[in-house]
Design a protein that fits this description.
The complex is a heterodimer of chains A (about 240) and B (about 110). Chain A is an all-alpha fold. Chain A is about 70% helix and about 0% strand. The chains are: A mainly alpha (about 240), B mainly alpha (about 110).
């Protein structure tokens, strides 16, 4: 019954997440090395990369483990560092439900970079959208796990200076931003993001600005809903 | 096993649980019923705002008051954006801008 080409689906997903695979291997590797240098094993890196699957938190976690941070403090820090994820699910409920039994996996395996790619996926006609989402999520997760474990197990044996390669994540966000700029009729959401982001960064500093910035842009989007929708309706012909 | 190892597993565990709860939250709130219209609207436009905030998030620790004033970061972000506008293909855009960043931070800056 399926008119989808499964092999093509896999390769489309692979190509779509290729920049993430590279960046996850390298940043995961950096996390693994941090774990190793702090005196922990590849098993710690493995479990952290499988079950936390969040670069910013895992990298903040290492010094907190070393400092024997109390559990409740750790929980509160984890919440503050990762609170931005609360915003990512909005708009993906229906799409992820199509995964059936794997719906919980899609909800879980949803860090910044995967969110970002999912925001600008345009499936070609013979690519299976459900499988494509799943492959994309799994490939990213696996490369993140592989990077972490390899770094923790063999980090000291690989004398490679890869500092700066984490710029790839910034590059990815910039690319998706450009895609959205070209796609969206109203650019007000981008200006709202820029305004909220810069304002909160200036007022609150680099460690605490994310949650306020996201909340502020959410409020502003609701306030300017009529304007944004008016512009979308005015210039959109395909909808 | 060293007791220290066990404590590390506990901290990893609590971090994982908190992260999973955060990720599940929007799905728990909006996943069960028909989406309110405002939420559906937000689902469409929020990515536009979030992407800009994520770029700011990546550059949050760049110092504009001390050398090199964020010059390599801004050059590479601009290069990446221009390439993506032209090519509409993220792989060369990301690869070239990241390569430039690694070269700049090792040589001039």
């Amino acid at each position: 019954m399926s008119v989808y080409h499964q092999k093509k689906t896999f390769f489309y997903a692979f190509r779509q997440v290729l920049p993430i695979i590279f960046s996850y291997l390298v940043v995961g590797f950096a996390f693994g090395i941090m774990m190793q240098e702090a005196g922990y094993t590849w098993l710690h890196a493995l479990l952290a990369s499988i079950f936390i699957y969040s670069g910013s938190l895992q990298i903040a976690l290492v010094p907190m483990i070393v400092a024997h941070t109390p559990l409740l403090v750790m929980a509160a820090s984890a919440f503050l560092i990762n609170s931005r994820y609360m915003f990512y699910g909005i708009g993906f409920t229906e799409r992820f439900k199509r995964q059936g039994k794997l719906y919980p996996y899609m909800i879980f395996a949803f860090p910044d970079e995967v969110y970002c790619v999912f925001c600008s996926t345009n499936y070609p006609p013979d690519v299976d959208p459900v499988r494509c989402d799943l492959w994309s999520a799994v490939l990213c997760h696996l490369s993140w796990i592989a990077g972490g474990v390899i770094g923790a197990a063999f980090g000291d044996m690989i004398p490679l200076d890869l500092s700066g390669i984490d710029f790839a994540a910034t590059g990815l966000f910039v690319c998706i931003f450009v895609n959205q700029w070209l796609e969206f009729k109203s650019h007000l959401p981008m200006y709202i993001g820029l305004f909220s982001g810069l304002l909160c960064l200036l007022l609150l500093g680099p460690d605490n600005f994310m949650l306020p910035a996201l909340s502020l842009s959410l409020v502003l989007l609701v306030i300017f809903k009529k304007r944004i929708e008016g512009k979308e309706a005015l210039e959109s012909h395909e909808a | 096993m060293k007791p220290d190892y066990l404590y590390a597993f506990l901290l990893i565990g609590i971090s994982a649980v908190v992260t999973i709860i955060i990720r599940a939250l929007p799905f728990a709130v909006f996943g069960q019923r028909k989406l309110p219209e405002t939420v559906e609207f937000l689902g469409k436009v929020l990515p536009g705002s979030i992407m800009v905030i994520l770029v700011i998030y990546c550059l949050r620790s760049v110092s504009l008051t001390t050398w090199p004033f964020g010059i390599p970061e801004f050059l590479c972000v601009i290069l990446c954006a221009v390439l993506q506008f032209r090519l509409r293909n993220s792989i060369p855009s990301i690869a070239l801008s990241t390569a430039l960043y690694m070269i700049l931070t090792r040589t001039i800056f």
